[in-house]
């Protein structure tokens, strides 16, 4: 491998051995290099380097950022086609960054990255450190010999700690294993391979429909997929590649026309944010070359043509594995007309060209009724896009004992209709049976479901008030009908439509707070250029606040989404039909 890497670093390559993509390939097929791809990455890295040089001594950088800055500089330094190839002006900054990698390392070989003495967080940095050492070793420049000595010391100090330490989250297992695979490749040690095998023996946390247990595009793209590919490549474990293939295949149905990836069902931080597809670039390239799937080619080429994101970071991956730069198989259209159901996360995706929709009923709230990191609690149950007109969320909040937003208990799919439902039961507690009563009145502190009190709730008989909510999302020729059916005690509710900033609302009334509007009657619209979403009808002028629930309000929290928020209100029991039209 060093010889292959060193040859490639000269920048003179015209062919690559694509068989190297698969660790058990019987032979390496010679393929032409995708020169446009190499030029794109080279230019992107050359854009990064001045930015690194301008602030490489930033005291606030985490060790992961320090390692990534060094990787960006070294990628340019060793790459024969870069304008920074063997540029001595990079050596002093590199020296400072490499010294930081050594100076910030604890005696046990680990780093603090938010978490203290963290094996998984250290692994993110050590993967880059291994790349740095391998590149400089292959380049074999006398000027970088001191850097290599320091980097080797960092790796040898860290790897035993990674092989003995623990993790916090599912994806950490694969990050640690990939770092150990790299360390073992450079400095073989049976402890490293034994720990990799321990983690792998637990099984890969992927569902049959290709979704990892964290259901996160962020961690699939940045951690799990690249790490599994690294382990497959360095440890000769080709079965891992199929997990990545299935995840990339599933991701095809979460892609938005503008390059975003739907993250509604995530159990991690991206359940409430935006994610872009560019992070997947080399994964889609590798699996296109490995499987011949032209759909993967299309995604990779769309990322390249869009040109957004830190594409320069992929140069290091290609320098390390030249076969990634081979000309891709012929492109084939990605799915643009479908209804795709993902049972593992109770979600569905619908696409009709430029119109896409997400229906989501798979929060963890009904199994684990709390708000916590690692749980899916996103109250958005529907999203709709019509080109540039984006309805980022539809949410529902009944005024029912401060129990908060509607969160569906699953999803049922029947043709073009998607059924969501929830039953919320709130108790009134009756006197304790005599056998549980205490003369001193000191009862156990127990949960009611919304709050805690010294009431020994678990032993009390109860009277319940119940709210039953059913929502049917039905695709029609020019959009969707959302039919809300409510059964229970008389109360009020609010439906919140949150549109992406940048468009124009019409037919709605402004409310007191900035960004808040109400549709009282008739039909409203949201327009961006030639793209439009119409919504309605309004259902009355009563103002009903969105209630995020006592779990949020007690601590002053909020679930108000960013954007232009339009509210429709009504009364329970009853029915309301919300029509969303895209033409």
Automatic annotation (TrEMBL):
Keywords: Signal
InterPro entries reported in the protein's UniProt record: Chondroitin_lyas, TAT_signal
PROSITE patterns: TAT
Signal peptide, first to last residue: 1-28
Protein's recorded name: Heparinase II/III-like protein
Organism: Kribbella jiaozuonensis
């Amino acid at each position: 491998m060093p010889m292959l890497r060193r040859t490639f670093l000269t920048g003179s390559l015209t062919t690559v051995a694509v068989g190297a993509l698969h660790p058990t390939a019987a032979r390496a097929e010679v393929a032409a290099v995708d020169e446009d791809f190499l030029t794109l990455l080279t230019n992107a890295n050359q854009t990064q380097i001045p930015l690194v040089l301008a602030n490489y001594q930033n005291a606030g950088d985490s060790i992961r950022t320090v390692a990534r800055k060094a990787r960006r500089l070294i990628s340019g330094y060793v790459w024969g086609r870069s304008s920074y190839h063997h540029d001595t002006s990079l050596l002093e900054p590199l020296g400072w960054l490499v010294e930081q990698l050594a100076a910030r390392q604890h005696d046990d070989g680990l780093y603090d990255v938010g978490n203290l003495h963290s094996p998984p967080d250290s692994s993110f940095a050590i993967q880059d450190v291994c790349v740095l050492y391998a590149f400089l070793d292959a380049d074999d420049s006398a000027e970088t010999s001191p850097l290599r000595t320091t980097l080797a010391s960092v790796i040898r100090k860290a790897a035993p700690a990674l092989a003995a330490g623990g993790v916090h989250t599912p994806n950490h297992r694969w990050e640690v294993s990939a770092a150990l695979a790299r360390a073992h490749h450079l400095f073989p040690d049976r402890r490293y391979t034994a720990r990799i095998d321990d983690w792998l023996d637990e099984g890969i946390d992927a569902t049959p429909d290709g979704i990892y247990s964290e259901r996160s595009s962020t961690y699939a793209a940045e951690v799990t997929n690249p790490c599994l590919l690294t382990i497959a490549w360095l440890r000769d474990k080709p079965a891992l590649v199929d997990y990545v293939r299935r995840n990339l295949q599933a991701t095809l149905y979460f892609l938005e026309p503008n390059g975003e990836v739907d993250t509604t069902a995530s159990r991690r931080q991206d359940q409430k944010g935006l994610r872009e597809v560019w992070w997947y670039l080399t994964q889609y390239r590798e699996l296109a070359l490995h499987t011949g799937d032209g759909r993967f080619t299309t995604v990779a080429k769309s990322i390249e043509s869009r040109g957004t994101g830190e594409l320069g970071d992929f140069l290091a991956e290609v320098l390390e594995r030249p076969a990634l730069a081979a000309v891709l198989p012929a492109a084939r259209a990605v799915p643009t007309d479908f209804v795709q159901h993902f049972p593992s996360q109770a979600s569905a995706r619908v696409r009709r060209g430029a119109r896409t929709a997400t229906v989501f009923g798979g929060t963890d709230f009904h199994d684990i009724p709390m708000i916590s990191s690692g749980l899916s609690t996103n109250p958005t149950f529907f999203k709709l896009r019509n080109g540039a007109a984006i309805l980022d969320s539809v949410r529902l909040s009944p005024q029912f004992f401060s129990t908060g937003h509607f969160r569906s208990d699953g999803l049922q799919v029947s043709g073009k209709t998607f059924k969501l439902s929830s039953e919320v039961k709130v108790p009134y507690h009756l006197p304790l049976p005599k056998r549980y009563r205490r003369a001193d009145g000191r009862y156990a502190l127990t949960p009611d479901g919304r709050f805690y009190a010294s009431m020994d709730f678990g032993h009390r008989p109860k009277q319940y008030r119940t709210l039953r909510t059913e929502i049917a999302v039905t695709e029609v020729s020019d959009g969707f009908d959302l039919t809300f059916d409510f059964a229970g005690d008389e109360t009020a509710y609010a439906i919140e439509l949150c549109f992406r900033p940048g468009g124009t609302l019409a037919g709605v009334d402004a409310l007191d707070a900035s960004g808040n509007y109400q549709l009282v009657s008739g039909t409203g619209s949201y327009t961006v250029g030639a793209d439009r979403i119409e919504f309605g009808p309004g259902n009355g002028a009563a103002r009903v606040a969105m209630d995020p629930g006592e779990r949020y309000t007690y601590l002053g929290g909020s679930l108000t989404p960013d954007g232009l928020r339009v509210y429709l209100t009504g009364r329970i029991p009853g029915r309301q039909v919300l029509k969303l039209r895209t033409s």
